[in-house]
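User: Assemble these into one structure.

Assistant: Restating your components, then the assembled model:
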Amino acid sequence: MNYCLKNHDRITAVQEILISLLPDEEHMPGKDGDLLVSEAEFDADEVRCRTDVIRGGVRQAAEIRVPYTGNAIERRRALTYAVKQSAYLALLPFLPEKPAWGSMTGVKPAKPVRLALRDGLAPERAGGFLHERYDVEPRRSLMAAQCAFESIQYLERLKCKEVQLYVGIPFCPAKCRYCSFVSNDVTRFGHLIEPYLAVLHEEITAAGRSLRQAGGTVGSLYVGGGTPTTLSAAQLDALLSALHGAFNLSDCREITVEAGRPETISREKLEVCARWGVGRVSVNPQTMRDDVLRGVGRLHTAANIREAYRMARQAGDFCVNMDLIAGLPGDDDAGLFESVRQVIELAPENVTLHCLALKKGAPLRFGPRGVLERATVDRCHELLEAHGYRPYYLYRQKYIAGGLENVGFCRGDTASFYNVCMMEELGSVIALGAGGVTKLCDRTGRNVRRLSNPKYPTEYIGSRGRILERAGSLLQDAEIW
Ligand code: SF4
């Protein structure tokens, strides 16, 4: 759809709502054809935004008035909200069904609820907050509030000068066809593993020294990827040894290693993990249907998943997470529900139910999609809840199937501290390795600096000098903490 702005500059707001509501279309500035016109007017205490949409010769319009009392920042916020909300209302009659997340385009739905609670929203109104403000479905509005309450508990437990630590291993045994992460197939890039680990160990040492000098502590450690268990047992052992040597992990609440693909999991690697205090691993089926796994380029079967899960149970006292994806090509609603049922039968402590997001870089981006009914995802959530799992974090992505969400479920007190801090942006995260994005916050939680490492292993290895220099001076700034 073409779009045109009058008397305001909120182009990103318009693009975001168009991508969110019409994800399969191109959206360009223009003045003809199917067209969205967004026009704002300002009074001293109110912004009015009118949106006109012409689509297939049919016209719809909506107008929103948003009061504001404060400064320029508040005025801009009011304008952004009015632009999106009026565009949403004008586009709504053209949509096949009401979007699950209404006019909300943000990827962290629990965060606005947490901030509203901080700013005085009564707790009993939290469940309906997103519904009232963004027309989010009531059940999803409630789920976001549940996650917001969960994140508040974690925020209260964060210590002064505590950071969460992430280490990236961007290698996998083969590339899944839906993957848009930086992950390097070892059949082509295996020769890079050793040089990559050499630089990573140096970065770990430098960052550890920097954190110690600043008096900081590590609250949680997450080794992710890629698939970290693509490394050999000896490489994994050396990596965890380097992390323990560089950082004081005595106060660390949890250490996670994403085992992910079952074909990379062995008893020896799990024993290495257990020896170094790893308490959480993930064994990720994505689906329990073998034909769907084959179609998306996974090299394992559901039987391999069961075997890897059994191995994890035998090798240590791990909290196990299992990831599933709704909407995979070749899958359908019955297949999804059955996968969730089979995973529940295995009884992992955590289950994460994703909805497929085919972003830039995913080989399947323009390929066929699986069948995905919102009602089936809801039934899967209900099934999980009926078996004692509760949602504890959630996030959304661009181009996510059905405009839905990814939800982490846990039982009892097994929620991942790292996941909550990361998703809800609670405090600082130091990210090491290729693709790592360090986020440093001050005491108020304000994000004061983001530092990105190069994405690809070759670039990362080639930037060794710059990476080590930065890791060594990460926390020298008095503004942090
Ligand atoms: S296992 Fe994960 S990171 Fe690796 S290719 Fe598949 S989706 Fe990408």
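Residues 158-470 form a domain with the pyruvate-formate lyase- activating enzyme fold (CATH 3.80.30.20).
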